[in-house]
Structures are given as structure tokens and as C-alpha cells.
Write a structure and sequence with these properties.
With about 110 residues, this protein is mainly alpha-helical. The protein has 6 helices and 2 strands, in the order H-H-H-E-E-H-H-H. Strands 1-2 form a two-stranded antiparallel ribbon. The longest helix is centred in the first third of the chain and has 14 residues.
């Protein structure tokens, strides 16, 4: 994919999400996702000498997907992967339904 195609993909996703460059689910920015994985915004790891990560960087890895209906971060994708791997998709759907229809039951008064 050319650089121009990547820009078009990114800006199309921003249009679909109302101009918000955040994960649709957790609302993290790209910078926050990189920080979660232990990297600076420029892709260099924190404490690289301590962990022996001198040659590791996050420059070539996508941490946000802009290809779907809304932007999704790698953290949320890993969470969904774990839920699916544990065969708990039905439970996730149940939890989402509870959040949508039984909010007062889930939270203290």
C-alpha cells in the first residue's frame, strides 16, 4: 500500500468517526496505545537498556486500525482475540446487552 493510500485510508476513517483519532471502544489515542505497550510516541521503547531492547522499535507496527467502520486499537483487538479464544463471545454479547438495557442494575444507586 502506498503512502497516499494509507493517508486516504486514515482520513476516510476519521470522516467515519466524526474526526476523532481515538479507539472507538476504549477511547485511547495512538500515543496512549504505544505507551501501554512500553513505547514512546516516536516508537522507541522505554527503559530499553534495562530490558535489553536496544534494537526494538515500533516504527513498522500498526497500533491502530483504520480499516473498519471505526478506528480500533491493538489493545482492544487483543482483548477481543482473548474473549474469542476463550469461547466467550456469547458472554460478551450478554454483557453488552446488560450494559445497554440494565444499566441501573449494574451500577450502584
Amino acid at each position: 500500500m502506498t503512502l497516499d493510500d494509507k493517508f486516504q485510508e486514515y482520513f476516510s476513517a476519521l470522516d467515519r468517526s466524526g474526526g476523532e483519532d481515538r479507539c472507538y471502544l476504549c477511547r485511547r489515542t495512538s500515543k496512549e496505545v504505544k505507551h501501554f505497550f512500553g513505547f514512546d510516541e516516536d516508537g522507541d521503547p522505554f527503559d530499553s537498556a534495562l530490558y535489553g531492547l536496544e534494537d526494538v522499535n515500533l516504527n513498522e507496527v500498526d497500533i491502530m486500525s483504520y480499516r473498519g467502520r471505526r478506528p480500533i486499537c491493538a489493545i482492544c483487538q487483543l482483548n477481543v482475540d482473548a474473549i474469542v479464544a476463550l469461547d466467550e463471545s456469547e458472554i460478551l454479547n450478554h454483557v453488552l446487552e446488560e450494559m445497554k438495557t440494565k444499566r441501573e442494575h449494574l451500577w450502584p444507586h
